[in-house]
Amino acid sequence: MRLSSIFAIIAVVITGGILLYGVSDFPSFGDPKSPANAAVPGSESVSQYFITKSYKDTKVPNLVTSVLADYRGYDTMFETVVIFAAGMAIFAILGSVGGESQPRVQEEESSFVDGDHSRIIVGTTCRLLVPVIQVFALYVIGHGHYSPGGGFQGGVILAASFIIIALSSDLDAALRRLSEVNYLRLACVGILIYAGFGVLCQVLESNFLDYGVLQPILLTDGPEMARSHSMLGVEIGVAFTVTAIMFAIYANLSSRGTLRDGL
Amino acid sequence: MIFAFDIIILVFLVIAAIISLSVKDLLSASMIFGIYGFLICLLWAEMGAVDVAFTEAAVGAGISAVLMVATVFNTKRKSSD
Amino acid sequence: MAEFFEQTLQPHFNFWIYVILMMIGLWALIAKNNLIKKLIGMSIFQTAIILFYVSLGVKEDATIPILDPYGQAEHAAADAEGAETEGEKKRDSYIGKKSPDPDTMANPLPHVLMLTAIVVGVATLGVALSITQMIFKEFGSLEEDEILEIVKGGGVDD
Question: FRET pair for C16, CA 20 to 30 Å: which of A134, A200, C109, C149?
Fold first, then answer.
């Protein structure tokens, strides 16, 4: 056994022992009156406020979406920026602009029996499957107010449909449908949509991302419905960025940054 | 929250984590890591966190396993430990 | 033993498993030699933290944090009265006046925090994997000791 392994076990056992000692003081699992779920008697904790008041404030039945896109909208906006920054970091690390990347050695001409046939079956099946996946992803984005879902999940599923195209045929087929320039544009547009909603609220003399003042623009029944509709717009922005960056990460990782003959 | 279901998934979770760290083939390690992601997605759904479960099903069981397979394909498949 | 199970282990079982998963992840981060194994350990560490957060928000016998404006009682009321507008009025008054009891619904706040953490986690995993690929391109190996050997020997000659 290596020396570092012994040190690792010692460090891990000490850390775990301290944490297990602390666990015995925790509130028991599933306790509705634990400090995380309920405040001191007589006052209301923030999570109780979200459960009792958020439908009145926003008219969105899915509490997670209303907290994500409205109460904590600023946080979500910069989480999206983090994803965007991760995508840019991958371009900076792997991108070989005009580099010495020699194309991979072409394999022997695969025989008709084991080469083409399997590719025909897999390719056709995936081509039939992809539109269904994409429609489902759009449903997840648009229906995130009423059921589990939203911009992050729908964006990842939409990116997965492009990754399936790249896996079943090759990377070029996927890049023909969503080219490098286009996914970079899409990522920027997503963040601009999100920030645009915030700036629009500021222009109308309110706080950044305070959607209630958008009521005269969105022509809704009241400020609550304006919040609900703006949340949909914000989720669409998140979905654009997540789709573009997830596909960009796959395309760069599978082709070592060259965007040619991937997996 | 169903306690028996909870215990079964958590035990499988620890087993999947240990196996994915102990196999020497990195391709199998990534695939078992995908299984780990799917088990933890079941765990979120069982604990009532449906949105987190949805995200984990798309991300943990789908994208992250594919990203790891892409890296293993472009580097080396054998691991020394 | 039985007392230990009832008093300590059973009410805190999720928290015990979170500590065990965290120990596995930390051990892999420190002791594993292969870089991709280290990254798998990092992801296990991350899910352990998420497990801790989500476990804090669980309430016994609580439902998922999604309200049901079109619940069964409201459908029955709408059917009985036969008028859609009446039913919709009833639904609006139900949800508007009677706010839900916080103890019957899981805490949505940890879910929100962890939902974004998962997606950001996969983006950072992508960055880590791309760095791994560049290390392999530079040193021709993914094993930590071989890379350290090359670095100590004065780097690669190119």
Answer: C109
